[in-house]
Structure formats: C-alpha cells, structure tokens
Amino acid sequence: MNWDDTTDADAAERLVDSVADREDQAVEAALRPKDLGEFIGQEKVREQLDLVLRAARARGATADHVLLSGAPGLGKTTLSMIIAAEMGAPIRITSGPAIQHAGDLAAILSSLQEGEVLFLDEIHRMSRPAEEMLYMAMEDFRVDVIVGKGPGATAIPLELPPFTLVGATTRAGLLPPPLRDRFGFTAHMEFYEPAELERVIHRSADLLEVEIEPDGAAEIAGRSRGTPRIANRLLRRVRDYAQVKADGLITRDIAAAALAVYEVDARGLDRLDRGVLEALLKLFGGGPVGLSTLAVAVGEERETVEEVAEPFLVREGLLARTPRGRVATPAAWAHLGLTPPRSQTTGNGQQDLFGA
User: Is 229 annotated as a binding residue?
Assistant: First the structure.
C-alpha cells in the first residue's frame, strides 16, 4: 500500500486501525462473547453493568438506558449485544449518521417491541432534530409526530413501549448535557493492558482453532495498541503467516517475523506512524513544527495525520502537541534509535518539549 495515496477509505485498511472493516465484522460475530462472564477486561464496567442488569431482571423491569464511551474496538457493540442477551430481549442496531431526520428516528422507535434494546452507535453524530425527539422518547417513552407544515402543523403524540437505549460514542464531549443526563448508567471503556489482550488472543485462537504459545500471544498483545479488535486482526494475519511459512504453530519468533512483514513494530507502530515520527525527527530536528507542514512532509492529508496517526503517538508518549507545534519526545528519538541534537535538550539532558 502506498501511503502517499492514502484516502479516508484507505486509512480504514491499516492493519492497526481500530475501525472495523467488513472482514472484522464477520470475524467479530463469531468471536464475540455472549455474556458478561465471557467478556474479558473492563472489570469495573462489567461489575457495575452486572448490578444494573440483575436489578432490572429482579424487578421485572426494562434496564436503564446505557451510555458507553471510548475508542473504537474496545467492545461497545459487544456489550450492547450482551445487555440484550442478559435481558432476554431482541436488539436493534443503527447509528447516528443514519438518523438525519426526526422521521428516521420516529420510524425506528415506533417499531420497537417492549423491552427491546436499541443500540445507537456514534450517537454524537445524530442530527439535532432527531436528538431532541430522543429526549422525550428516553424519558417519557413518547414521541410527538408532526403532521403537516407551517401554522397548520399538528403534533400527534405516539406512545412507545418501554425500551433500553444503548448509546455508544467515541467522543463523549460532543454529547449535549441534556442527552447525556438521560442515561441511567454511563461507562467509559479503557484501553486494555497487555495481560488482558493475551487472554483475548488465547480465547480467539481457541475459537479459530489456531495453536499459539504463551510467548506468541504476548508478542501479538504487545503490538495491539491496547485494543482487542486490533489484537484479533493481528492474530489472523500471524495465523496466515504461520500456516504458510511454518507448521501452523504461533511462537514468539513466528509472531515477530509475521508482524515485521506487515510493518507493525514492537510498540504497535505501523508505516504511517513511523513516517510521521521520522519526518518530525529527521527533517525538522524533533520540532516544533506545524501540523500542515508535517502532513506535507509525509505526503498525507492534515486530517489523516491528526486523526489517524497522532492519537496513538501522543498516548504512547512519542509526540507532544504544544502551542508552537508538534514536538518529538525523548522516547521518540530512542524508539527510532536516533540521538537528539543538542539544541533539543535541556541542561539535564532531557528534550525540551516546548523548545524553550
């Protein structure tokens, strides 16, 4: 793949992208845990959600509305399906971008069965008119359908059966407070620790009938960027390599060799991530440098660098955003095996992130 020609569609094809493609969706359906007991990680969220669901079942009531926030690939969709399974209810799945008019939402809500779970992914991207209709639906289980236009328009109240809305968002800060406050339970999904990802990988390997040694799982987990979806995707690619180049058994050496082929390094950086770091270090001496200039240097769109590469680099402590521009950290120089110029270090030998 030529990163110089990357588009938004191409970005989704990155091996370490946490956004699901069609292949991921098909595999996830087979690997997805069916109840909270099978769900790995997110201990606090699981404990709290278990109490909410058990209490609702004991009362014979519909579960409270649930808001799940966090980065893509951490299990928000899986938890929504588990909620429906635990409550013995059907689930309806849609997304915020698919609801651009209040009528779109009214059509969905009016067809819900009692107790049904409505999963609304990327809820922050829903249109404002639909959002305002959702307020009443969540609180009073009622919507007003507007018939006609102008002064002659009439609002017809439509009663809804009790239902549970599960909203998912990658950007909780974009949700207006009136909507956020109507959820009875909110949870933030955290990135996974390597030990948790190893458990995910072993479980997926069993379901995929792949032989994997503990050190092989550890090698994949360490490159999975704290995200189960990426861990499962890397496992599938390593499985392919092991079947073609070895005897099918995934060891540490086999996993490392396979991921080297796919240009995923020991910290989970891929070619795009390293390209950004190399441009920042080699062309601009570690910065500070403006985002647009950095994007031009790597042959990418500004949005691609800012939204695709930067979040992980910042989270890994390899890059910092400062008022003067993007700056490489000492860890970035060490990761690429380069020595920072003297002008980039302070008296104690540490890089000055703000260029002061």
Answer: yes
Task: Say if residue 200 is in the same domain as residue 183.
Answer: no
Q: Annotated active-site positions, please?
A: 76-77, 121, 170, 229
Any domain includes 320: yes
198 contacts: CB under 8 Å, gap ≥ 6: 214, 217, 218, 221
Radius of gyration, CA atoms only, the chain = 24
pTM of the model: 0.80
**Claim to verify: residue 177 and residue 31 sit in the same structural domain:** yes
| 182 assigned ligand-binding residue | yes
Q: What is the pLDDT of residues 245-277, one digit of tens each?
A: 888 889 999 999 999 888 888 888 888 888 888
Is the distance from CB of 310 to CB of 277 less than 8 angstroms? Answer: no
Give every CB contact of residue 52 below 8 A, 6+ residues apart in sequence.
63, 64, 66, 184, 185
Distance CA 13, CA 21 (A): 7
Neighbours of 77 (CB within 10 A): 21
Residue 267 among known ligand-binding residues: no
In a domain, 54, yes or no: yes
